[in-house]
Every structure is written in structure tokens, then in C-alpha cells.
Amino acid sequence: ITEISPSVEKVSEYTREELIGKHVSVVYQNTDDLAKLVEMNRKFGSVNDYELKLKDKNGNIRIVSNSSHLLFDEDGNMTGTEGILRDITERKRIEKNLKENEEKYKLLVETMHDGIIQADENDVILFVNESTCRIFGYSEDELIGKVAKDTLVFQEDRHIIEKKNEMRENNLSDKYEIRGLKKSGEIIWLSVSGTPYQKDGKVFGSVGFLNDITEHKKATEELVKISQAVNQSPVVVMITDINGRIEYVNPKFTEATGYSENEALGKNPRFLKSGETKKELYKDLWDTVLAGKQWSGELHNRKKGGELYWEYTTISPVRNSSGVMTHFLAVKEDITEKKIKEQELIAAKEKAEASERLKTNFLANMSHELRTPMIGILGFADLIKELADNPEMVEFSESIVKSGKRLMETLNLILDISRIEADKLEVNTNEVNIVPLAKEAYENYLAAAASKNLKISFRSSADEIVSKVDEKLFYESVNNLINNAIKYTKSGEIKVEVIADKSKSAKKTVVKITDTGIGIPEEHKEQIFEEFRQVSEGFSRGFEGTGLGLTITKKFVEKMGGKITVESEVGVGSVFSIELPLVDVSLPEKGQNGESVEEKPVPENTETEILCVED
Ligand code: ADP
């Protein structure tokens, strides 16, 4: 070193005296770099902006830029080197920072989950990050140079982008939601945050940060739907935390209880208790729900105004995605009205049952009280008839007997029904041949049929058909049906048939009473078996009777394990059938016309056909 400027003193912290005469390597860190500089100078005569590390007197390293050239004497001999040093330590630091920052931001933009799109003032895409490509399904090359709104926005929403671009020109930013269009044509929901892209205070386009919120949007819509449904629900919905503290009540809660939402939130639902519900019920409730099960039951609670009300409550535990119980959901329906009606119904039923018992007892008593004197009246009327010596007296006494018998029949029916209703009917079933029983009943009505000029016949498919019946009940039943057949037939024929049906499907006996009477309309076929019901009822009824015959017959038949059916056509006639279990004694069968199936001679008395003509 032969000379230095004061600035070298400053940058190297050495004084001029300390440096003059020293080898230049004293201020440099790396001698190799210095050797290179010397070599380049020798080779080219000069070197510009060669970077070197300068080591100052305190050992601190500074970066300097060296521009140097060779020095020559008059004869052209090289005498040395003259160099200018510029301290560029600060510039280097800034450059390094900038580079680092650039890399940092690049990484940030590329790895960012949000899509980033930069577009110019004509909405032409200048830059997209990887997420944008992922969201829309395009490659970067496919997007650069395209008009953003025409490529990436659902056509119905493109007008929104036009407005937004106008805003950006006015240097305005905003956030919005819009429907995007994927390369596949699929429409997606995007959340966009758009800002103007500025340089030196001038807007050059826009930058948008976007997110695919399709799933989120769907989930939100679903949530809104569900929460609206719960909000508008006609039943009370209450959600409590695991400790029973109310977190949510729907508006119906306020309507039902009188307590506002604020009055309920944070409280335990026990404030609704009326003291009317048993403690064990609450214990059962808590035991059930804390065990993770659903509980349902009726609670008797009190409204804010003090009024008691009934609710049907279902409480179920709510679990989070890990299966841990976090809340309880209670759905409550006000059943006060229903409860009142139920209680009224129970009271009405009890009352009806009481009056039914009263009626039955009354009927039993009355029929007994009436039957006893009736027997006296009938007996004496018969006696008068026997003793009467003039025809008028005979006619009067016959009239008494006839009316008396009718009254007696009615009384018997009433007695029967009251016995059935009081459950005092004794049923003694035995295996008996029902042919003679049915026939006896039939014979009872020969005179009655004759008096109405009706043909009446009896037929049985065998001489002996054994069924398990209570003889008295069976006999009464057949009597009732023949009685009705005659009563409701003006002209034509009554057929009484006893048939043993031995078909494999059902072994049964059928007693069939067929008439050519007035018939029963379809809508009355069920009703006629009910107590006191008749097809023609009220003051306009066309036939005598109590409406009890079929009720009693049905009950009798059912008590014997059988059933009664009716087929009928108005104006054509009716067929009433009693079906009873058949006891198979394997007797020969007879054919339709009375011939034995096994071609045995037909006993004379098994089929009777009598044409009854009046007088
Ligand atoms: P009642 O004959 O005393 O009225 P029933 O209980 O015996 O009472 O019959 C109920 C109703 O069924 C009768 O009133 C009648 O309307 C109808 N009914 C019963 N048997 C016949 C029949 N063979 N033909 C037409 N209607 C009948």
C-alpha cells in the first residue's frame, strides 16, 4: 500500500500510517479472492465491481465492491494498481432479505389452501396458484391468458363479476359468495375476497382469494333447514347439557309453558315440576338417559301462570362424533287435552258399565217378576178356555193365551240376554245327535207357517249328525232362526237343513235356514246381530219383535264354539247358517234328494215336506 484515501481509513478502521507500507492483504479476509483480483487486473488491465470481503481492524467483515486498474510509468512499465472500494455491506443485506422474502412469499402463495387469481383490468388471468387449479380442475397453462369470469364463473353469476370489476377500478375491496364453474361443468360455491391490484397508486386489475365452500354451504343449508324445522315445530324442543342445564328451547316452549327463552336458558328443567309427578318416575328418567338410552313418559308439569299441564316427553342422549354424550334432547308434546278426554272417556266408560249392570239386574228382576204372574195368567186363561161354554168366551180366552205367550216369549228373550250379559249363562255341551233337536224346532213352526200360507220343509244329510252342543241353547237358536224366517217371509218357502260337512278343510255341522222373505240390506248385515237392532227401527218399523233374537242366537252359538253367518239379498230371501264342530261318528251320508250316498234306503222321517195352506 503506497497511498489510501481517508474513506479507506473509515471503512477499515486503520489509520493511514498503519496501512502505508503494509501488504494489501492486511485488509482482506480471503487471500484467494485477492489473488484472483490481481490476476484479472494483470490480464485485462482493469476490473469493475469485483466483490471482496474486507476485514477491518476490529476483525469485522464488510463487503466491498472493488473497481481497479493497473498503473504504468512513462516507459510503459507496470508500477502498481489503483483501486476504488465501495462499501456495499448494507446493499447486500437488503438484497439477501429481498430474495429470502420473495422465496417465502412464493412458498406461501403456492402452498396456500386458498386459491389466488390475479387478473388485469380486462379480467384476463395473469397468475393462478396451485389451489386455484385444484379447485377448478384446470392446469395453470389452461388458465393463464383466459378471461376469468367467462372461464371460472357460472354464467348466471357473471354479471356479479362485472360489478365487482367496476368496484376494483374505483379501488374498492370486498368479500362475496358466488357460483363458480369447474372444468368438468360442475357448479360450485365460492367465497371470494377481491382487492384491486395496485402499483404506484394505479389500479392494474384485481387479485382474488377464493375458497370452495360448496360442502360448507350445503351443510349450512341443511343446518338452517333443521333449525327452522325445530324452531317452527308444533312440539316443544329442549336441549340441555349433560348436567341438565337448558341450552336451547324452541318458541313452542314459551307458548306451552309461559316461560320466555331467557327465563329458561341456563336453568335445570326442574323449575317446571308441579310436584304431581312421582319421584320414582324422575329417577327412572335419569337412570335411563344417563345410561345412554331413550326415555319416554308422561310428566305432569306446571306453567308459569301456575296452571298444570300434561306432556308426553321423549328424552334422548345426543352424542358427539366420538360417541361421547354431550347433551340431552327433549321433545315434548302437550297432551293435556288428550288426558282430559281420556279421563272423561274412562269416567264415561265406568258410568256406562255401571248403568249396563244396573240395566242387566233390572231386566233380570223384571223378567222374573213378570214371568211368575204370567204363568198364572196363562194357566187360568187355559182353564177358562176349557171351562167356557160359549164361543165368545173361548175366543177371548184364546186371545189371552196368544198374547200371553207372546209376552212370555219376549220375557224369555230378556231373561236370556240379561243372563248372557251378567255372564250367568250356564253352558253344558255334550255330544248329541242334533237332527231330532232341529227337527223338533222345525215342527214347532208348522202351524205358524201354515197360517201364513208358507211352504216349509226339513232335510238332513244323515239320520244322525253328532255335534258338541248344549241341547237347550242349540234348540233355542234354531227356534229363533225359524221364527225369524217365518216372520220376515210373506210368501214362498222356508227350508230347514242339517248338513254334516266332512270336507277335509273343515269338519263341521251346518244348520241352514233358508227363506224367500224380505232379505237384509248389505249395510245391516252386521248390525242385526247387535242388541235391540232391527232393519226397520223406530216408530215406522214394519215388524213386531224386540231385536234380541239374533243377538241371543249369536251368543248361544259362540258359547258352543260355533259361528253364525248370513247371506241375503233384498227381495229374494235370506240364508242363516249355524256352523258347529262336527263329531265324526261315520254314519252313512244321504244325497241331495234324500238318497243315501251309500245307496241305503232313506228313513222316511228324515225329510219332511209339508205344504201349509191357510185354513
Ligand atoms: P227381531 O226379529 O225381534 O226384530 P232379531 O234379533 O231376531 O230381532 O232380528 C234383528 C233384525 O234382523 C230383525 O228386526 C230384522 O230386521 C232382521 N232379520 C232377522 N231375520 C231376518 C230374516 N230371516 N229375513 C229378513 N230380515 C231378518
Outline the structure in words:
The chain is of the alpha+beta class. Helix content is 40%, strand content 27%. Strands 14, 15, 16, 17, 18, 19, 20 and 21 form an eight-stranded mixed sheet that branches. A five-stranded antiparallel sheet has the order 5-4-8-7-6, with helices on both faces. Helix 14 crosses helix 18. The C terminus is likely disordered. The site of adenosine-5'-diphosphate has 21 residues, from helix 17 and helix 18.
Key structural traits:
single chain; 615 residues; alpha+beta; eight-stranded mixed beta sheet; five-stranded antiparallel beta sheet; 18 helices; disordered C terminus
Short characterization:
The chain contains 18 helices and 21 strands. A hairpin with a 5-residue loop joins strand 12 (308-319) and strand 13 (325-334).
**Ligand roster:** adenosine-5'-diphosphate
Instruction: Tell me, rounded to a whole number, the average pLDDT.
Output: 88
Question: Which radius of gyration do the C-alpha atoms yield?
Answer: 57 Å
Helix content: 25-40%
The count of helical stretches stands at 18
Strand runs, count:
21
Shape label:
rod-shaped
Write the layout of secondary structure elements.
Blueprint: H1 6-12, H2 16-19, H3 31-44, E1 46-55, E2 61-72, E3 78-87, H4 89-111, E4 115-120, E5 125-128, H5 130-136, H6 140-143, H7 148-152, H8 158-169, E6 174-181, E7 187-199, E8 202-212, H9 214-231, E9 236-241, E10 246-249, H10 251-257, H11 261-264, H12 279-290, E11 295-302, E12 308-319, E13 325-334, H13 336-387, H14 391-421, E14 430-433, H15 434-444, H16 446-451, E15 455-460, E16 466-469, H17 471-487, E17 493-501, E18 508-515, H18 549-559, E19 563-569, E20 573-583, E21 608-611
Parallel strand pairs: 15-17
Antiparallel strand pairs: 1-2, 2-3, 4-5, 4-8, 6-7, 7-8, 9-10, 9-13, 11-12, 12-13, 14-16, 15-21, 16-20, 17-18, 18-20, 19-20
The site of adenosine-5'-diphosphate has 21 residues, from helix 17 and helix 18.
